[in-house]
Q: What sequence folds into this?
């Protein structure tokens, strides 16, 4: 059961409301409730109002329809600071990074995202100045399972890895959620899990996945109607309206340009925030699809004009993937290093080893040293 502003353990979607209680102002935030016996956290008193957290008294509210956490404060800033102090270290607020991603979509630039797959790669991308990170299903399958892109990775595994990426820094993360891991109801669950993980944007595609029994291995498209149903389900499931839902279609690669336009229009009408064109993308396709819809485009990458950020921006492309080369490069680096060691190369003679300074930076060693001194009395 939930109120107007939900809490699902990973940040609040909206700012708390300021309400008047006598001569002082208080801040009230409905809190997400478990449907089981007893309240989660402090429950409201007879007036629905709580005192400062230090003096909160709890009592069971039989209706359990809504919890309000109210902190008396002399002004809004004090109240919000109190809320921040209460929950600092227990939750993360993902809204600010989602607002940054939305600003890119609503702007007039096109950006290349950094392809990331774990906490370290995400920090490297952020430190190098990438505004957006991209975590794909294929890279998730390889990095988590060591398996090819055959949709054998589960939603739970994908969401857990996405959360590790998000919590490692402040990178705005776009993820490829494949087909939503099932039908429209599964899509709802997918949105719930990935939103809680902290992502900023996700795509749901219209390819039939995983490969059905008895087929020749060639990809096929689900019906437009099923695709529209999935898009609507995704939109209805999100708690934070800043979370971007992109309708992804492989129609250019599997069918033709007319089919791609039809699906882009249908998904736009369903309410998605962007259209992701995956595979078979050409200059003509970008020009025609862009002129047929009003929402931004996300592309799977390309060369020539399809790699020209200015040209892409002029055709309402806001995010253009390059490749997932970082993961392949990491695989090659590990292979070369282990092979060299196996062949007898002394460790001191190994090439392309990250220097100590870089390792300290990507592991945020200075932060941990400061926390050790502050909380453990260490040096």
A:
């Amino acid at each position: 059961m939930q109120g107007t502003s939900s809490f699902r353990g990973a940040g609040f979607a909206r700012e708390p409301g300021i309400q008047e209680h006598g001569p002082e102002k208080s801040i009230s935030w409905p809190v997400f409730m478990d449907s089981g016996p007893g309240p989660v956290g402090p429950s409201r008193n007879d007036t629905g109002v709580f005192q400062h957290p230090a003096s909160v008294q709890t009592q069971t509210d039989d209706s359990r329809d809504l919890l309000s956490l109210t902190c008396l404060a002399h002004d809004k800033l004090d109240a919000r600071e109190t809320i921040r102090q209460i929950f600092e270290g227990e939750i993360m607020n993902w809204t600010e990074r989602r607002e940054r991603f939305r600003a890119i979509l609503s702007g007039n630039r096109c950006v290349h995202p950094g392809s990331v797959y774990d906490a370290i790669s995400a920090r490297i991308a952020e430190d190098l100045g990438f505004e957006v990170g991209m975590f794909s299903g294929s890279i998730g399958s390889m990095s988590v399972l060591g398996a090819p892109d055959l949709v054998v990775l589960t939603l739970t595994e994908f969401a857990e890895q996405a959360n590790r990426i998000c919590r490692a820094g402040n990178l705005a993360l776009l993820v490829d959620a494949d087909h939503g891991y099932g039908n429209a109801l599964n899509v709802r669950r997918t949105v719930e899990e990935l939103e809680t993980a902290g992502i900023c944007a996700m795509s749901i595609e219209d390819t039939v996945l995983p490969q059905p029994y008895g087929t020749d291995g060639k990809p096929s498209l689900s019906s437009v109607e099923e695709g529209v149903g999935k898009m609507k389900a995704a939109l209805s499931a999100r708690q934070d309206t800043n979370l971007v839902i992109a309708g992804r279609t492989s129609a250019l690669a599997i069918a033709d340009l007319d089919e791609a336009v039809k699906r882009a229009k249908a998904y736009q009408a369903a309410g998605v925030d962007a259209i992701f064109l995956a595979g078979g993308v050409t200059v003509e396709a970008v020009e025609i699809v862009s002129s047929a819809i009003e929402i931004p485009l996300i592309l799977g990458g390309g060369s020539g004009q399809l790699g020209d950020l200015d040209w892409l921006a002029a055709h309402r492309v806001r995010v253009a993937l390059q490749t997932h080369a970082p993961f392949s490069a990491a695989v090659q680096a590990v292979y070369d290093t282990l092979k060299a060691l196996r062949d007898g190369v002394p460790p001191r003679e190994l090439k392309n080893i990250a220097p100590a300074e870089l390792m300290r930076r990507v592991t945020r060693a200075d932060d941990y040293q400061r926390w050790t001194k502050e909380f453990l009395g260490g040096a």
Observations:
- Residues 1-91 have pLDDT under 50 and may be disordered.
- The longest strand covers residues 24-30.
- Residues 50 and 98 are 31 Å apart (CA to CA).
